[in-house]
Design a protein that fits this description.
heterodimer, A: about 260 residues, alpha+beta, Ubiquitin-like (UB roll), five-stranded mixed beta sheet, four-stranded antiparallel beta sheet, about 35% helix, about 20% strand, B: about 625 residues, alpha/beta, Glutaredoxin, Rossmann fold, 5 domains, four-stranded mixed beta sheet, 19 strands, binds flavin mononucleotide, binds iron/sulfur cluster, binds FE2/S2 (inorganic) cluster
C-alpha cells in the first residue's frame, strides 16, 4: 500500500485511493464542493487544491478529490501556495453567489472573509455549477433529465430546452446532493405533486391509504419496479401504506393472530 | 490490391512512366484562399483549353495536363497557377488570364510578365517560387508536396514517393525501431504542448489494455489558423501514411481523424484518400500483404474550441459533450472509451513519413537543440506577405516578420507579434531576435501553440488586444471549472473598464493576481493558458496600461473615449460634411472655413472621422 505523507502525517491507502481519501484517514480537512463519493471525479470546483511535492525540487498543485495515489506521495495541505489557491477559488465562488449561506459558512471555515471581486456572472439561485446534480442524475439515477445549457460563464443547469423534463422522475437526488440548496423539492398540496425546482418537472405522489401521508412519486415507484421485477398492480397492492401504517397493521394482525391462537 | 512492397514499387514505376508522358502540366491551387477567389473555375477553363487543343485537327504538339493542387501558402496573392516545365508561378490569376497563359506559356513556352510575382520592396519580378522572398528562407518538409500533388489522386502521392516509408517500416523495421527513429528525430507534438512524440508512442505501446486507439487531431479551433487545414486539404495521404506508421509502431488497429466541423473540403479529401488507400491495400486489412491491419474513420468536430483539447476531444468522440476532464491518469493509459489512446496533431503525423524516409538524424539536424525540425505558421496581421509558412525551428521572429513577411504594411512601425493562438502571448520588438522554438516562446511568456502568428503595428492598442483575446476565451471556456469560468469573467470585466477609461491603479495587480490563480488552478490548458494574453501585454506594455489608467489615454487611439477627434485647420476646407453628419451637433463652422469640434459635446462616435473626404479629422 502506498504511503501518503500529508502535512507530516503518514497514512497508507489502497492504490487508486485519492489524496482526499488519504487526508480523511489522516484526519486532515480539505474543503470540497463538487466531491461526492457517489459521483467522484468531477473535479470542477477546484476548491480542494493541495500541493504535491515530487521530492526532486518540483511541486505542483493538484485537486485532492481525484488525484489517484499510485505511489508514495508527499502532500501539503497547509502550504502557502495551496492555501492561497483554495482561498482564491473560494473568493471567485463568493463573487458568483454572494448570497449563499452554505458558501459563506464554508468560506469562514477556510479563513476567507468575503471577496474582493464584484459579481460579474449570473448564478441561478446561487448555483456554483459544481455539476453534482447533473452527474448524480445521469450516473446514479440513470435518468439524464438535467444537463448543461450554455457555455462558459453562461452555463446553467437545466432540463432540455428549459422545459419540464419528461425523463425526470422527481426522485429528489439532485436536491439532496446540491451543496448550496439551489435545487428544492416543492410539494403541491392541491394536486398532490412533487416539483423539482427550478427544473419545473412535477410528478404525482403516492399517498398512504391509511394516514394520507405522502410517499414516493409514482415514477420513482415505476422505476423501482423495473428493477425488482414486479408489476404496477402488485406494487400498488404492497405499497398502499406508508412504512409506519404498514408496521401498525402488521402488529395489529399479529396481535389478532396471537389472540386467536390463545 | 497490392500484396507486397515490391508490387507497390511496380505500381509507382507505372504511375511515374504514365506521368512522364505529359509535356506540360498546369497546377491550379484549390486551397481555401485561392478557391474563394474562383480558382476552381480556372481549373475548369484550363481543362477545357487542354481538351480543345487536343482536338484541334492536326496532331497536338503537346500532351497537356491540368490539375488541382493544395495550398501554396502565398494565399494573399491567389489564385496561384504554376506551369511546368519551368515551374513558372503566376499569381492573382483571373478567368480572362487563362487564355493568355495557355497560349503564351503552355503552348508557346513564353512567360506572361504581368502575372508574375513582383516584390513590393524592390519591384523585382520572380518567375518561380524559389525566387520569391516569401519562400526563400522557408524550409518545407510537411508542406513540401503541397502545391505539387493533386490531393484527390493517390497516384500523385505515389509519384512523389508516397507510402515508401510505410512499406519500409512494415518490411524492415520492428515497432521499437520505429519509435527509436522518431525519438532520434526529436519530434515534439505540433498541436501546442510540444510533448515528445516518441515518448507518447512508447507509453501507449507499453500501456495495458486493448483495443488501443489512435487519433489525429484536426480540430484546429484557433481563429485564423489554417496550417492543419492546408495539410489535410492539400496532402491528405501524408497524414494517413504517418498515422498508419504510428499505428504499426504502437500496435493499434483502429484510428480516427477528428476534423473541425467547418472544414468540409478537408473531410472530402481525407475521405477520398482513405477510400483510395483502402482500394489498393495501403489501408484496411493486411496492409501490403502483411498481418498488420489498420482502419481509419473520420469524425466531424463538436464545433467548440475546447473540443481540440485531448480529453474533450475523446469525450466528443464517445458521443458525450466535449468537455475536458482531469489528466492525472494519462490518455495513453485511459483515453477513448477508457482504453489506451494515442493522440497526435495533424502536422505531427504529417512529419512521420519524412522522418522514416530520411532518417531521424537528418530531421534532428534541422532546428534547435530542444525543438527539432520545422514548424508551420500562419502569418497574418499587419505584414506585407501573409500566408502559410514553414520554417526551421530556431529562426528568429525578425526573419519571419521581415524576410518572409516583408515587414509591416504601409510603413507603420512594428509593435508586437502575437504567437500561439488566442491563449498565446504578445512579444515586443525588443525580442524580435528571439529564436522561435517551443521553450523560447514559453520563456517569453507566449507559446508555440499550433502556430498562429499575428503581426501588430503601432496602431494596435495592447490593452485592447488582451481584452479581445480574453473575450474570445471567455466565449470558448466550457464553464466546467470555477477559475476559468469565473476568473476569466473577472479579468475581462477589469479590462473592459480599463479600455473604457475607468481603470484604477490596483487593476494591474488584480489582473496579475487573478492570472496567477487561474494558471494554477484551472482544470485544462484552456484556462491555464488563457491568462497569457494579459500577462504578456502587462509584461511588455505595462506603460500602455498605465497610460489608459492614469492619463485616461489610449496611445494607439483604438479605445473609444480615450482620445479626441480634432479638425486639422490646415487640411479642412469647410465642406461641412462632418457638421451635417455629427449626430450630436458638436461641429460648427462656416462654409469654406475650417470647422471646429466642441469637445464638450463630442461623444467620440467617430462618424466625422469616417465621413471626412479630405482626412482632415485626426485622432489626438
Ligand atoms: C483549448 C485547447 C484546444 C486545443 N486545440 C487543439 C487543436 O485544435 N488541434 C490540436 O492538434 N491540438 C489541440 N490542442 C492540444 C491537444 O490537447 C493535444 O495536446 C494535441 O493534440 C496532442 O498532439 P501532439 O502531441 O501531436 O501535439 C488543444 C488544447 C487545448 C487546451
Ligand atoms: S444546482 Fe447545485 S448541485 Fe447542481 S450544479 Fe448547481 S450547485 Fe451544483
Ligand atoms: S479550464 Fe476552462 S475550458 Fe478547461 S475545463 Fe475549466 S472551464 Fe472548461
Ligand atoms: S472538490 Fe475537488 S475539485 Fe471540487
Amino acid at each position: 500500500m502506498p504511503a501518503v505523507t500529508i502535512d507530516g502525517i503518514e497514512v497508507n491507502v489502497e492504490p487508486e485511493a485519492t489524496i482526499l481519501d488519504a487526508a480523511k484517514k489522516a484526519g486532515i480537512w480539505i474543503p470540497t464542493l463538487c466531491y461526492s463519493p457517489a459521483v467522484p471525479n468531477l473535479a470542477a470546483c477546484r476548491l480542494c487544491m493541495v500541493e504535491l511535492d515530487f521530492g526532486d525540487g518540483g511541486q505542483q498543485l493538484v485537486t485532492a478529490c481525484n488525484y489517484p495515489v499510485r505511489r508514495d506521495l508527499i502532500v501539503s495541505v497547509s502550504s502557502e501556495r495551496a492555501v492561497s489557491a483554495r482561498r482564491g477559488v473560494m473568493k471567485l465562488l463568493l463573487a458568483r453567489s454572494p448570497e449563499s449561506e452554505e458558501l459563506k459558512e464554508l468560506a469562514q471555515q477556510m479563513g476567507v472573509e468575503g471577496t474582493p471581486y464584484p459579481k460579474v456572472t449570473e448564478s441561478q439561485r446561487n448555483c456554483i455549477l459544481c455539476g453534482l446534480c447533473v452527474s448524480v442524475c445521469e450516473e446514479v439515477i440513470g435518468c439524464s433529465a438535467i444537463g448543461y445549457a450554455g457555455r462558459g460563464a453562461e452555463r446553467v443547469v437545466a432540463a432540455p430546452f428549459r422545459l419540464a423534463s419528461e425523463d425526470c422522475i422527481a426522485c429528489g437526488a439532485c436536491a439532496a446532493i446540491c451543496p448550496v440548496g439551489t435545487i428544492q423539492v416543492r410539494i403541491h398540496e392541491g394536486t398532490g405533486e412533487a416539483e423539482i425546482s427550478p427544473f419545473k418537472s412535477r410528478a404525482k405522489l403516492l399517498i398512504c391509504e391509511e394516514c394520507g401521508k405522502r410517499m414516493v412519486t409514482e415514477p420513482v415507484g415505476k422505476q423501482v419496479l423495473d428493477r425488482v421485477k414486479i408489476d404496477w398492480e402488485e406494487f400498488r397492492k404492497r405499497a398502499r401504506l406508508c412504512p409506519e401504517c404498514r408496521r401498525k397493521r402488521a402488529a395489529a394482525a399479529l396481535g389478532l393472530a396471537a389472540a386467536k391462537s390463545m | 490490391m497490392i500484396q507486397s512492397p515490391a508490387e507497390l514499387e511496380d505500381l509507382r514505376e507505372k504511375v511515374r512512366k504514365r506521368r512522364s508522358t505529359f509535356d506540360r502540366v498546369v497546377r491550379v491551387c484549390i486551397g481555401t484562399g485561392c478557391a474563394a477567389r474562383g480558382s476552381r473555375r480556372l481549373y475548369e477553363l484550363f481543362c477545357e483549353a487542354a481538351e480543345i487543343s487536343g482536338r484541334s485537327g492536326h496532331e497536338p504538339k503537346w500532351k497537356i495536363e491540368a490539375k488541382c493542387v493544395g495550398c501554396h501558402g502565398l494565399c494573399e496573392r491567389g489564385p496561384i497557377v504554376v506551369v511546368q516545365p519551368g515551374e513558372i508561378l503566376y499569381q492573382g490569376v483571373e478567368e480572362p488570364d487563362v487564355e493568355e497563359i495557355f497560349r503564351e506559356t503552355v503552348i508557346g513556352g513564353r512567360v506572361v510578365e504581368h502575372l508574375l510575382y513582383e516584390d513590393p520592396a524592390t519591384g523585382k519580378k520572380a518567375q518561380t517560387a524559389e525566387e520569391i522572398p516569401f519562400y526563400k528562407v522557408q524550409k518545407r518538409i510537411v508542406l513540401a508536396e503541397n502545391g505539387n500533388v493533386d490531393p484527390t489522386d493517390i497516384e500523385d502521392y505515389l509519384a512523389v514517393g508516397g507510402y515508401a516509408a510505410l512499406a519500409r517500416v512494415i518490411t524492415t523495421m520492428d515497432p521499437e525501431e520505429i519509435i527509436e527513429e522518431v525519438d532520434r528525430a526529436g519530434l515534439r507534438g505540433r498541436g501546442g504542448g510540444g510533448f515528445p512524440t516518441a515518448r507518447k508512442w512508447r507509453s501507449c505501446r507499453e500501456a495495458e489494455g486493448s483495443p488501443k486507439y489512435l487519433i489525429c487531431n484536426g480540430d484546429e479551433g484557433d481563429p485564423g489558423a489554417f496550417m492543419d487545414r492546408s495539410i489535410m486539404e492539400g496532402n491528405p495521404h501524408s497524414v494517413l501514411e504517418g498515422m498508419t506508421i504510428g499505428a504499426y509502431a504502437i500496435g493499434i488497429s483502429q484510428g480516427y481523424i477528428y476534423v473541425r466541423n467547418e472544414y468540409p473540403l478537408a473531410v472530402r479529401h481525407l475521405k477520398t484518400a482513405i477510400e483510395q488507400a483502402e482500394e489498393i491495400g495501403l489501408l484496411g486489412d493486411n496492409i501490403l500483404g502483411s498481418s498488420f491491419s489498420f482502419d481509419i474513420r473520420i469524425n466531424r468536430g463538436g464545433g467548440a474550441f475546447v473540443c481540440g483539447e485531448s480529453t474533450a476531444l475523446m469525450a466528443s468522440l464517445e458521443g458525450r459533450i466535449g468537455e475536458p476532464r482531469a489528466k492525472y491518469v494519462h490518455t495513453v493509459e485511459s483515453g477513448l472509451n477508457g482504453k489506451p489512446t494515442n493522440l497526435n496533431n495533424v502536422e505531427t503525423w504529417a512529419n512521420i513519413p519524412a522522418i522514416i524516409n530520411r532518417g531521424g538524424e537528418w530531421f534532428a539536424s534541422i532546428g534547435t537543440e530542444k525543438s527539432r525540425g520545422t514548424k508551420v505558421f500562419s502569418l497574418v496581421g499587419k505584414v506585407v506577405n501573409t500566408g502559410l509558412v514553414e520554417v526551421p525551428m530556431g529562426m528568429t521572429l525578425r526573419q519571419i516578420v521581415y524576410e518572409i513577411g516583408g515587414g509591416t504594411k504601409d510603413g507603420k512601425a512594428f509593435k508586437a507579434v502575437q504567437t500561439g493562438g488566442p491563449s498565446g502571448g504578445c512579444i515586443s520588438a525588443a525580442h524580435l531576435d528571439a529564436c522561435v522554438d517551443f521553450d523560447e516562446l514559453t520563456r517569453l511568456g507566449s507559446m508555440m501553440g499550433s502556430g498562429g502568428m499575428i503581426v501588430m503595428d503601432e496602431d494596435t492598442c495592447m490593452v485592447n488586444v488582451a481584452r479581445y483575446f480574453l473575450g474570445f476565451l471567455k466565449q470558448e471556456s466550457c464553464g466546467k471549472c470555477t477559475p476559468c469560468r469565473e476568473g476569466i469573467s473577472q479579468m475581462l470585466y477589469i479590462l473592459e473598464r480599463i479600455t473604457r477609461g475607468e481603470g484604477e491603479l490596483e487593476d494591474i495587480d488584480t489582473l496579475e493576481e487573478l492570472a496567477d490563480l487561474i494558471g494554477e488552478t484551472a482544470l485544462c490548458a484552456l484556462g491555464k493558458t488563457a491568462v497569457n494574453p494579459v500577462l504578456s501585454t502587462i509584461r511588455y506594455f505595462r506603460k500602455e496600461y498605465e497610460e489608459h489608467i492614469i492619463e485616461r489615454r489610449c496611445p494607439a487611439k483604438e479605445c473609444r473615449g480615450l482620445f479626441l477627434y480634432e479638425i486639422n485647420p490646415e487640411v479642412c476646407n469647410g465642406c461641412g460634411i462632418c457638421r451635417k453628419n455629427c449626430p450630436v451637433e458638436a461641429i460648427s463652422g462656416e462654409r469654406r472655413k475650417p470647422h471646429l469640434i466642441d469637445q464638450e459635446k463630442c461623444t467620440k462616435c467617430g462618424v466625422c472621422f469616417d465621413k471626412c473626404p479630405f482626412a482632415a479629422i485626426v485622432k489626438v
